[in-house]
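subagent[fold] <- orchestrator: predict structure for attached chain, return tokens only, no commentary.
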Amino acid sequence: MDSFTELLNKKHMGELFLVILMIIYLVMGLKTPDFVIDMIDNTIGKIVIILLVIYLFMNANPILAVVAALVAFDLMRRSSGSTGLGDLAAYAPSEKKKMSQFTAFNQFPYTLEQEVVAKMAPIVRSGVSIIPPSFKPLLDNQHDASPLTGSN
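subagent[fold] -> orchestrator:
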């Protein structure tokens, strides 16, 4: 009760006036102007509001600080719904969601073509064929062509 009687003191009429204005804002549900909403609905604006509330808790009447914290919370809640940035963050796909969709789209069943190619192609590991070839390459007549290496 000491905080309340101190707030009613003539010396603290400015703080009492602020408390009354904040309570009117909370109770009446007045519309916040668009230019104020644009300043609040970003990270810097929210940090400034939180710092102001912390400052009030440290240096002002506790009743004013508590009412200011309620108003700050309500102001941030109202402004996030007005600009649409909250909805954008909630419904816009993140990189993680996009990658999970791409992964789901790129899952293909084992096809007949893959099966036939796997049976036909010889398995080659580190340059050595497991199955020796059944042919021996022969060098044909070069018709006086120069070698590919460029040396004579």
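orchestrator: received. Logging for downstream: The chain has a mean pLDDT of 79. The longest strand covers residues 124-125.
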